[in-house]
Amino acid sequence: MYTLILMSSRGNSVRQHAISHGRVLLLSLVVFIVFLAAISGIGYGLFQKRQNINAEERLQTSVKEIEELTREKLQIESELAGINEEMKDIRDMTEKIQQALGILGQGGGDSSIPWASEGNEEQVDTQQENTAATTDAEAHAHKMQRSLTTHILKQEILPLYDYVSDHQKQIDGHPSILPVKLEQENGEKYAFWYSSAFGWRTHPLTKKREFHHGLDIKTRAGVPVIAAANGTVASIKKSGYLGKTIEITHESLQFKTLYAHLKGYADNLKTGQKMVRGDIIGYVGNTGRSTGAHLHYAVYDMEKERWVNPIQYILDQQPMFSP
């Protein structure tokens, strides 16, 4: 048994209450439960708050990730749009090349070579009739609607590649490059210009009007001279007018190229030697009747038996104004 004494603050009132041992234990248990419930509530509140904070952080992270993915998506779409434009440009260039080479049908048409597709003559005739019945506007609309993919583009370019490969020997034997090597192994690049064109001119030394059968390419002395196409060295000689010269025959197209006023020849160069386009054959010089270091380059058509303008066969370089 326990006694609980309650006194007023003035001390004039005293109350006593008898409390059994069981009640004390019960009261203690109630207080403990209330305290435990309060602690649990506070803990649960903190836990929920932490969960909310974590959820908000995850949401912010997800938003950032979505924004980043959106930016990447827009960038990829922009790059794909650029690639599609480039692929369209490649398709246009392919068609122009095919047309220039004469491997497109009359009036253009599909970007494939007629003989490259398989099928019998009846199928080819039917296809030609259908093509003839299709207007240019309809063909253009069909072409624009067709999805341009790398596979389609490859299929369009493949016939052109096969055509060029089949004619590679003739192409390699065609003198179509500038016959001087301007870019050196160390990366230095020499300038050049055409000091005298093909055709009638007043000779710089004799001052007489005469026909110039070649093209004078002005550049530094010692710049390597290269074979303009695959061929065979026909002659290596020195003449009073042209100085040191080299002649190369290109049998596949019945052409001959002449390189004159050379400073010297490439090591071990000899008559009858097979040359590949770009091989060094000599060096720009000032030998013979010349007013300065330059290469006299000429192209002779053996079938027509006449010299032709070399500028028509130089496709890869634009002249500069000074060396």
Structural notes for this entry:
This protein is an alpha+beta fold and 323 residues long. The protein has three domains: 1-100; 103-166, no CATH class; 193-313, Glucose Permease (Domain IIA). Helices cover 39% and strands 24% of the residues. Strands 3, 6, 7, 8, 9, 10, 11, 12, 13 and 14 form a ten-stranded antiparallel sheet that branches. A two-stranded antiparallel ribbon has the order 1-2. Strand 1 (2-7) and strand 2 (14-19) form a beta hairpin. It starts with a strand and ends in a 15-residue tail after the last strand.
Please write the string of helix (H) and strand (E) elements. Answer: EEHHHHHEEEEEEEEEEEE
Q: Which homologous superfamily in CATH is the superfamily of the largest domain?
A: Glucose Permease (Domain IIA)
| Net shape | rod-shaped
Radius of gyration: 45 Å
